[in-house]
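Researcher: We're teaching a course module on how sequence relates to structure. For the next exercise, students receive a sequence and then see the predicted structure as tokens, so they can try to spot secondary structure elements on their own. Here is the exercise chain.
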Amino acid sequence: MKGLKFRVLLDSEQSQEVFRDILVSTEDTFESFYETIKKSFNFTGQEMASFYVSNEYWDKGHEISWMDMRYDESDKADELPTVMATAKMKDFITAGDQKFILVYDFLRMWIFLIELIGYQDDAPNSPEVLMAIGEAPLENSKPISDVIFGGDDDSDDDDDFGFDDMEDGFDEEDFSSLDDFEI
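Model: And here is the predicted structure for the students to work with:
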């Protein structure tokens, strides 16, 4: 078995880079790789996550999900989802610098950029963290509202969803004539 050395970079707003170099076996599953990534960044793993096979431009490709998210079992066999527990690393290495994207917590959108940076003749029995650079932010330090509502705009003109209340061209006086109707 060969060993695959990956650099796992956390995409964060910190001024310092935060990354881990992790060595896995070609026979390891994405689930064991995911567990090692979570632990190395001190994340609890209570949130949904998916790997995406990527290209040189960091585009999201084929999804390798944490769990099977199908609604029913009627899907065709060739369209079955790929899940981390059964997906082996060797089956998704198609380039010498293979890239993956890991999205963790789809509300906070933690993004990990993962790149194959080397090979070793000997593979570890389980994934190993070879190097840890930078202190990972707290898992809940990224506010949910930044993703859902588009930022921390404290404008009084916007309601809770970022829409201007008066943008529709109507005001309260336009609806005063409706008070005469019994509804």
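Model: If you want an answer key for the exercise: The mean pLDDT is 82. Residues 3-142 form a domain with the Structural Genomics Hypothetical 15.5 Kd Protein In mrcA-pckA Intergenic Region; Chain A fold (CATH 3.10.290.30).
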